[in-house]
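In the previous lecture we treated proteins in isolation. Real proteins rarely work alone, and many bind small molecules. This record shows how such a complex is specified: first the sequence, then the SMILES for zinc ion.
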Amino acid sequence: MYVCDYCCICQLLEKKLLAKNGIIEDDSKEREEELKLADCPRCKTKNPVGAKYSMTCSLVLDQATAIEMEKGSNDLDRNLGAVMANAELKEKLKQEIIAEMLKKFS
Ligand SMILES: [Zn+2]
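The predicted 3D structure, ligand included, written as tokens:
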């Protein structure tokens, strides 16, 4: 699962804090907009409206991001197709993916 170390909630809280201390302008109308929550269609987590990803399951909530990712994955599929046709490259990629995963989870 993708975990953002500076997620939209953190940014929102920071903004509220800064506004409270008069460091930035408190645009209450805008803030109200941001504080609206929307259920994630997959895990039902309440995410701020406008959040690109679900905080819990990282499902793409933003339509523009979803379309962008769709495009990206199509490109990736095409590239993967070319790689998978080459046995030597395929093996090399597999090793890289395993190494990458080990790094992430260690
Ligand atoms: Zn979710």
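Summary for your notes: The chain has two domains: 1-61, 62-106. DSSP finds four helices and two strands in the chain.
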